[in-house]
Specification:
This protein is mainly alpha-helical and about 60 residues long. Helix content is about 45%, strand content about 0%. It starts with a helix and ends in a 24-residue tail after the last helix.
Length: about 60
Amino acid sequence: MVVLRLMIEAGEDRFAALNRLRGLRDCAVETKGQLQWAFAAEPPDAGAKVSDDGGSAWPVARD
């Protein structure tokens, strides 16, 4: 369930991610509530700027 949500948040199509995950582990999402929680994830905004430090996806601490 958590892996499915991360896959969606990384930009993978919800249903493609579910099918791929179930191909590896068919019991990964077992209930309707789990599926709803995972599908509530927001894919990344295609036009969003990831960072200003040359490509790192992690925030950079500034003094």
